[in-house]
Amino acid sequence: MTNHPGENTRAVRLPAPSAPVGRSVRGPVHRSTTYAFGSSQEYADVLDGVQEGYSYARIDNPTTEAFAHAVAALEGAGLDREVRGQAFASGMAAVSTALLALTEAGAHVVAARSIYGNTYSLLDGLFRRFGVSTDFVDITDLDAVRAAIRPQTRIVFTETLSNPTMTVSDLPGLAAIAHEAGALLAVDSTFASPAVCRPLEHGADLVLHSATKYLGGHSDATGGVAVGRPELIAAIRSARIDLGPCLAADEAFLLHRGLETLPLRVARQCATAAEFAAAVQRHPAVARVDHPGLPGHQGHRLARELFDSGPEGARCGAVVTVTPHGDRGTGMAFADRLRVATIAASLGGTHTLVGHVGSTTHRQMSDEALRAAGIGPAAVRFSIGLEEPEDLVADALAALDALDGSASPM
Ligand SMILES: *Cc1c(COP(=O)(O)O)cnc(C)c1O
């Protein structure tokens, strides 16, 4: 630079922040989209992977990478082998990129019929158009899963806990079927989080998360993660770079901060959910409550085998689906009468959120289709937050009393 650069040159070459002197406890947010090199050779070496470093934010960003490493450490905590992670702009970005990276035209997928709605439509729509076919099966029926396997099957796709019935997948059983067929077991573990279950310990090859839910935990950041062994994650990273759904540094910072309280939050949310499920189940207006902590639930035994427990009790997830006797209108009225729980999409945050299943997440399904999936027309899903359990129970019981006609309606 000349000794007296012009006004605009000075403006864009203002003194740069120096490297932090002290070691900040909280990692910085690296917003820069690009990185300076000392020489053309260094630039080329970083791009070639010969030298470690960062070049461009869509490829790698230190804040985003730190978050992905942290999730990989949580999911791989019980393993001796190496586990890596990649972060994404959303849970669906993680799911779609991983599925694209691990299939090709002509490939076949066996997926749980109960999977997240957008994963279902992705596989049933876009993927079919590009030559990847999927059979959707009752994932609790291992014979049906085995029967659906074909020579072209690349992936068996399930969720640790499914929405909204909290069905628990038999991960070791599914892993055995997938591996026997030379396929991978991919598990969307959003509803569990690594504070409840780490699917890699039970034979899964790949774990996917909507970090928007429990990992972030505060309903203020959208993101996703894929975790698995290095060669799978390398293929997924490469697809991510081409497709472009990188997680922004600001979001990564918030999601990473959320991880610090993940076990505390989730342990408490699970304990409250179990207490809530047991209390609400006894109300005469209630036809059914779905939660794996309840004896008689499909996943009660599997949850004991596969899920963690702590001093606060077994961790069976923090979603509880309460189905009053009645029709869709009854379910909507139940949700509308709640005062502590908030009607809202999403789950896993500090606030208890509720939604009437038949008019929201499963609105495309008829009453018969809902019943076939084990979901009553009046079902209301609770994502239990951090409120006091007695406040949540009292809120639900009052709303149920009002439905029952045993209390004066509002
Ligand atoms: C929310 C969710 C997703 C999608 O995550 P986004 O962050 O909204 O893209 C995928 N799977 C499950 C089970 C979810 O709950």
From TrEMBL:
User: Which sequence positions carry the modification called N6-(pyridoxal phosphate)lysine?
Assistant: K213
Q: Does the keyword Mitochondrion apply?
A: no
State the source organism's domain of life. Answer: Bacteria
Provide any one GO MF term from the record: pyridoxal phosphate binding
- Cellular compartments per GO CC: cytoplasm
Q: Which reaction does it catalyse?
A: L-homocysteine + H2O = 2-oxobutanoate + hydrogen sulfide + NH4(+) + H(+); L-methionine + H2O = methanethiol + 2-oxobutanoate + NH4(+)
What SUPFAM superfamilies does UniProt report for this protein, alphabetically?
Answer: PLP-dependent transferases
EC assignment: the record states 4.4.1.2
Q: Name one Pfam family in it.
A: Cys_Met_Meta_PP
**InterPro entries to which the protein is assigned, alphabetical:** Cys/Met-Metab_PyrdxlP-dep_enz, Cys_met_metab_PP, PyrdxlP-dep_Trfase, PyrdxlP-dep_Trfase_major, PyrdxlP-dep_Trfase_small
Task: Write the record's keywords in alphabetical order, separated by commas.
Answer: Lyase, Pyridoxal phosphate, Transferase
What's the cofactor? pyridoxal 5'-phosphate
Q: Name one GO biological process term.
A: transsulfuration
Record region (Disordered): 1-26
Instruction: Return the similarity comment.
Output: Belongs to the trans-sulfuration enzymes family.
| PANTHER family (alphabetical) | CYSTATHIONINE GAMMA-LYASE, TRANS-SULFURATION ENZYME FAMILY MEMBER
* Entry protein name: homocysteine desulfhydrase
Its organism's taxonomic lineage begins at:
Bacteria, Bacillati, Actinomycetota, Actinomycetes, Streptosporangiales
